[in-house]
Amino acid sequence: MPERETIIRARKDAEEGKAPSTQAGEFVREEIHHVREGKHGVSNPKQAIAIGLSKARKAGVKLAPPRKGTASAQKESRRHRSTRSRTSAKRSRATTKALKREGRSAASHRALSRQARTAARRRSTSSRSQAARKAARTRAARRRARR
Q1: What mean pLDDT is predicted for residues 49-56?
Q2: Mean pLDDT computed over 11-22
Q3: DSSP string of the chain?
Q4: How far apart are CA 141 and CA 27, in angstroms?
Q5: Residues 61-88: what's their mean pLDDT?
Q6: Is 55 in contact with 2 (CB distance < 8 Å)?
């Protein structure tokens, strides 16, 4: 269950008209904090991101479904097939226990930096520069709004 603060921050982003990925970023951020504070571990940065995105989807952020073929995609499709039933206590405990056995270093600055770099490398040059231009535009708009 996401923390109340995270949901409030994500809703604020939605009201400001920010992209669903920005709203979901709050949930990913929360998940990384959980790993860093030792609540549980993850095997790699992608797993922390996947858990955060899954929480965002459950909270109602209008994100695209996970990519086909991934483990989270299979879980998500199963989950949304018919009326959602609650996860059994046994399964929930097993998942939590498995996560607690995982390491904590996957949420380190170094690991996240490496993940961001490889994700960026997979994108085309034009896609990256377009994102940079958009960031500059929204940054300028925010600066004007603050005055």
Answers
A1: 94
A2: 91
A3: ---HHHHHHHHHHHHTT--HHHHHHHHHHHHHHHHHTTS---SSHHHHHHHHHHHHHHTT--PPPPPTTSHHHHHHHHHTSSSPPPPPHHHHHHHHHHHHHS-SGGGSHHHHHHHHHHHHHHS-HHHHHHHHHHHHHHHHHHHHHH-
A4: 25
A5: 74
A6: yes
Q: Hey, what amino acid is at 34? A: H
Neighbours of 49 (CB within 10 A): 21
Question: What whole-number percentage of the chain has pLDDT above 90?
Answer: 67
* Amino acid (one-letter) located at 137: R
Assigned token pair, 64? 């695209």
